[in-house]
Design a protein that fits this description.
The protein is mainly β. The protein is 11% helix and 42% strand. Strand 4 and strand 5 form a beta hairpin.
Length: 154
């Protein structure tokens, strides 16, 4: 009898949760996490012969700016950061203490920059010279996790 009860409980749980859909916010936009990575990222071996562990990226609180799609040729760079952008930002959001951000945007293509003390950070380019390009589609959220690593050595 106890065995039958356990089987029925498991079966009813499976049936109940099978129809549950994951939460999906309405609208569309870009969401992700901003993390920080610095220092030596080269593979190393310790005296014992084991590989040394590398630090994991740490979530950071930063502002994230969203621009219309920008070409690399329209930017000025100094010390690994962009200091002059030819266009005005569409919007800006601040990450939470865990580095997470979310922004609703109209469908289209955008360039995304992280605001740092000496300028703006972006490190992804496509084959057409666009900087940190992201495409937002109607009723879809695009995931963009950014590792701010201009002080890391590879």
């Amino acid at each position: 009898m106890k065995r039958l009860f356990v089987i029925l409980t498991i079966l009813s749980s499976v049936i109940l949760f099978q129809n549950c859909k994951p939460y999906k916010p309405e609208g569309q936009g870009i969401t992700g996490t901003i993390t920080w990575l610095e220092g030596n990222q080269m593979p190393m071996v310790t005296e014992s012969g084991n590989p040394a562990s590398k630090p994991d990226p740490k979530p950071i609180k930063r502002f994230v700016r969203f621009y219309p799609l920008i070409k690399f040729s329209d930017l000025k760079i100094e010390n690994g950061l962009y200091t002059a952008v030819a266009d005005k930002p569409i919007t800006e959001v601040e990450t939470d203490e865990n580095g997470r951000y979310s922004v609703q945007l109209s469908p289209g293509r955008y360039s995304v920059f992280v605001v740092e003390e000496g300028g703006l950070f972006a490190n992804i380019f496509d084959g057409e010279g666009n900087v940190q390009p992201v495409t937002v589609k109607e009723n879809e959220w695009t995931l963009l996790d950014i590792v701010v690593n201009y002080k890391a050595v590879y």
